Structure formats: structure tokens, C-alpha cells
Amino acid sequence: MNTSITIIGAGLGGLTLARVLHLHGITSIVYETEPSAESRAQGGMLDIHDYNGQLALQDAGLLTQFQELILEGRQAMRVLSPDGSLLFENPDDGNGGRPEVQRGELRQMLLDSLPAGTVRWGYKVAGVRSLGDGRHEVSFANGGTVITHFLVGADGAWSKVRPLLSTVTPRYSGMSYVETFLFDAGVRHPASAVAVGTGQMGAPVQGKAIMAHRERHDTLHTYAMLAKPLEWFADIDFTDKAKASARIADQFAGWAPELTALITDSDTVPLWRPLHALPNEHRWQRVPGVSLIGDAAHLSIPNGEGANLALYDGAELAKAIALHADDLETALHQFEQAMFERSAKVAAEGEKFYELLAGEDPAWGMIDMFQEPDANHLEA
Predict the structure, then answer these.
(1) Considering 101, 127, 180, 280, which has the largest number of Cβ atoms within 10 A of its Cβ?
(2) How many angstroms separate the CA atoms of 203 and 81, rounded?
(3) Coil, strand or helix at 51
(4) What confidence score (pLDDT) does residue 43 get?
């Protein structure tokens, strides 16, 4: 089986790439490990920025559909102290440049914009090898193979395509999230709902924090952040909801009950998310017929920009291909050089929050950060 452009990964970046290529009359096929679009939850809230993510959606001809997904009021931000006292509040007046949407709904919008059959589900990559002359062969766990003249790795942190270009692998950052959910919070968990407010809430102290976001259907999605080694988390049985929740909540002993309840009262099993990252300056020498976008290219610890950069990467690569249809290597060189610069800059800027968290008074540092005109909201 042969195809001209093969995309590995049906995340935001890969789907945006396929969509913008389609608008330019260029066919691509997206191969995705998941068996279907509905096979797993797609994460929480995303703030899509007017200077990158929204520009990509405009290139994709989907800005109007995107605006229909926006959840009003979710750009609001609150900072609390561990005793629940309000230190800072910035309401959502509807004029911010980072409207919030659900990741799963955004992904579905992109899927719906593609011709039938563009995404091939249930194709887990088993191996990738170069055949020379810019051609690559991708083998799948289901026994299939594809030979392509242009391969794009949009397959995330543990990309199977990346080794064709780079020997660098992600390293643990020293910080992990533990995710929990409270459903129908206004009725079932009113005190926690008030603490979180209409948008995002953060309660940070040195080395740890409780962050939470109000999602659709009055769901409170919480990220308990802890600067602990991997071994510390490995000792926790996260299949035991009660014990795991208690172990994590114990790290916040003495905090206001409406905050710790975000962990202990979880309606779901706590989910451990160790945060890994590639070096800020990660880059590679040009290899004919292959490239990377999104986390496959520039994984960083969550900083509010990952999804936006993936969207932007996808759109920019598609436009470069369309502009240089007869000279693909020129397109890839120009795209990659621009991507290296913007991703390195964003990763360095995004580390500010984690540097604050390691300091003695992260709450006030966080407040100062959110009062900056170009401040980012932290998203998982």
C-alpha cells in the first residue's frame, strides 16, 4: 500500500495538518492507535490563543465552528491560600484572547471536518524504517504496512517516528499531576464548587499545588501537583481509589476541606500523570521525507501552549507543503527552522510557573504572573 503523505497520530496537530492539506487539495492518511474516536477520554480544558491556536483554526476554515464550542466564563482565574482564603480573582469579562474549550470537542470538530476514511483507526505503530530516497516504511501491530514518500510524526511524547530524526528521549521533570474529577459539583460538592469559581483555581505552595478547572456539565477537574520522584508515585496503587486519594490528600494535610475534597471525594480513580519533557532546544538535522510536529517534536511540561503549538505546527506545515509542492525538502527546512525557534522560546517561558512553584512564595509569584498582559493559563 502506497500513499504520498502519511501522518501518525490523530491528535490535534495531526488532524489540523490533514485538514489544511485537504483544503489545498492534497490527500493524506492519518493512522491512529486508538480503535475509535470514542475509545477514551480526551483530557480537560484548553485555552486556545488568538496568536497561534486560533490562527491555525482560521487556516483550517473552522474558526466559526470553534467559537460555538467556547465555554463562557471559563477564562476566570482565582488564587487561593491553603486555608481557602481568596488572594486574587480575575473574572472573565468575555474579552480575553484565550477562550476555553473541551479538548475532546475540539478534536471531534477536526475529525468531522475531514473526508471519510482519512483517519484509519486501530493502527498501532510497531516499527518505522527508512528505505532511502526519502521513502519510509511503517509497520503496524495489526500486520499492515505502508510505504510513504512523506512521513509526519504527530504521535506525541513517546513518538515512534522521532527516532528517525533524533536519539533524544523525554526525561522526567521531577513533577507529576494526579487528576481527579467531581461531577455535578454545584449540587453534590457546593463548597468545592464555590472555591473553584467559574473558571480556573490555583492554590500553590512550595513544591506542590492544587489546581482545578470547571468543565462542561458542572464538572470540577483537579490536578494535584507534587514535586516527587517517580519512585514515590510507583509505590501507590492507583487502582485503589480510596487509598490512592488518601495518600495524595495527605500531602495537603491541614488545607481547607473544600480544597482537599477535590481529591478525597473524587468520582473517578485518581490518574497519575508524570510530566516529561524534551530539551527546550530540541532539534535535528534535515532527513528527507520525514518530520515531526507537536509533542513529538517539542514536548514540554504543561504551560498552556502545547495544544496551541500542535494546532499551529499542523497548519504551518500544511501551508509550507502547499506552497512548495514541487520542492518538499525546501518546505520542510523552512517549516522546521521556524518551529524550532518558536517552540524553544515557548518552552523557556512556560517553565516560569514551575520555577515559581519551587520558590518560597509561589502564590504571589503566580498572581504577578497572571497580571502580566501576556500571561498564560496553565493547562494540562
Answers:
(1) 180
(2) 6
(3) coil
(4) 76
